Amino acid sequence: MKTKTDVLVIGGSIAGIVTAATGKTLYPDCDFLVVRKEKEAVVPCGIPYIFETLHSTEKDLFSEAVLSDAGVQVAVDEVVSFNPRDKICRTADGTEISFARAVLATGSIPKTLPNIQGIDLENVFTVPKEKQYLSAMHARLSACHKVVIIGGGFTGVAIADELHKAGKDVTIVEGLPSVLKLCFDEDFAIAAHQMLISKGIRIFPLDGLKEILGDTHVTGVLLESGARLETDAVILAIGFQPNTAIAQEAGLPVNELGFIKTNEFMQAGSGYGSMRPEDAKILAVGDCAEKRCFITRVPRNIMLASTACAEARIAAVNLYRLSVARIFEGTIPTYTTMIGDTAFGATGITESVAKEIRFKITTATCEGYDRHPLSMENTHPQIVKLVVTRESGLIIGGQVMGGSSTGELLNLIGFAIQNRMNIYSILTAQIGTHPMLTSSPISYPLIKAAEEIARSRWVG
């Protein structure tokens, strides 16, 4: 069967959904077709919460109305070949699709450990963004009591906390000195580490998986330290890698980290001198697309839903006309997670990374509360850390630990970084406050951190 469309979007998770829906809004006379393998798309950031808070994958799905209401067509199929020069792709069911523009939103796939003995035993899981797999995983874990999670990043920590809430005996094995160490400075990472331990979750830091034990089912793991742990299941939460097989087979260049190379307009094929004319109509967004740090301009292995949405909207704008006002200037990594009722978040670069790349910086950490007065019900301690350049006072990073308002406060710091604000902009910010919603205007931790840095003789 042959069909055609104006804009073909390959991949139907968050980046593909936002690209198609935004593009159709901006170019209503164009046909948009999304081809995706899964009938239903899970919300990636909500995956850990299917194990207790949500109780099932059914409550972690994108609404199909986002695409249907926008007038976007969806085909549940798998693209098996993609020809950017002839503008044709073929799918597993034999359909040939011709297109004028194409957006690759093929996402990422979980990393695994193929050389580890026992990796193919039953009840060894990865964490793909696939509803059918996750539903089966949820069902099998329901019958397990002991679970070992390999990896103490955001996915591993969130799943550990959820399984612990569900009454499981949970152990995290982490190769670094503490969980979340890649995204937080030591004080914040240690706080998260100790909070997990206080809840009853065991952690083996500075250790790794050597072998998975069992005949047909998992019975235990052997760690590099020699420790043996009994377990009913193993979850590999060791990160993700860009899903770029289709792009590479089509001849599109990838960078040294395996991501599809893109320019500021999200067009694929840039980076090797002049862009080939046929590639100017091919774009890439989301986890499969190249990421460069907003601050350092260095390629980074960053995969975030917030970044994917920003890239998707920029790609949608630039499908048929380039807009210099709508370019992607680099990724500002913004991470958040919850452990119990405490939230941890980081944006920009950490103090340790800034020092590693020899930025001259100053920092300040201020403590307060997320409501006022302190007698207000459900008041939670709040800690804010700012990382600022010495010579200009430019904000390049921030970390927050607190209650449910942490995410929005962290977003505010991210906005400050993106708009190249300095600490005086924060110091003189006119903010709205309310006893049940925010810190006191007298001791607002973000502003107090800026004030502390302004006192430094290194700034100004």
Description of the structure:
This protein has 460 residues and is of the alpha/beta class. It has three domains: 2-109 and 241-317, 3-Layer(bba) Sandwich (FAD/NAD(P)-binding domain), CATH 3.50.50; 112-238, FAD/NAD(P)-binding domain, CATH 3.50.50.60; 341-454, FAD/NAD-linked reductase, C-terminal dimerisation domain (Enolase-like, domain 1, 2-Layer Sandwich). Helices cover 23% and strands 25% of the residues. The chain is built from eleven helices and 22 strands. Strands 1, 2, 3, 4, 5, 6 and 17 form a seven-stranded mixed beta sheet that branches. It has a five-stranded parallel beta sheet with strand order 8-15-9-10-11. A five-stranded antiparallel beta sheet has the order 18-19-22-21-20, with helices on both faces. Helix 1 (14-26) packs parallel to helix 7. The longest helix has 14 residues, at 186-199.
> What is the CATH superfamily classification of the largest domain?
FAD/NAD(P)-binding domain
Question: In angstroms, what is the radius of gyration?
Answer: 23 Å
Number of domains: 3
Largest sheet: 7 strands, mixed
Distance between the first and last residues' Cα: 67 Å
Mean pLDDT: 93
CATH class of the largest domain: Alpha Beta
**At CATH's second level, what is the architecture of the largest domain?**
3-Layer(bba) Sandwich
**What sort of overall outline do the alpha carbons produce when their principal axes are compared?**
globular
Within the CATH hierarchy, at the fold level, what is the topology of the largest domain? FAD/NAD(P)-binding domain
Strand content: 25-35%
Query: How many individual β-strands?
Result: 22
- pLDDT < 50 stretches: none
Helix content: 10-25%
**Tally of helical segments:** 11
Give me the secondary-structure category: alpha/beta
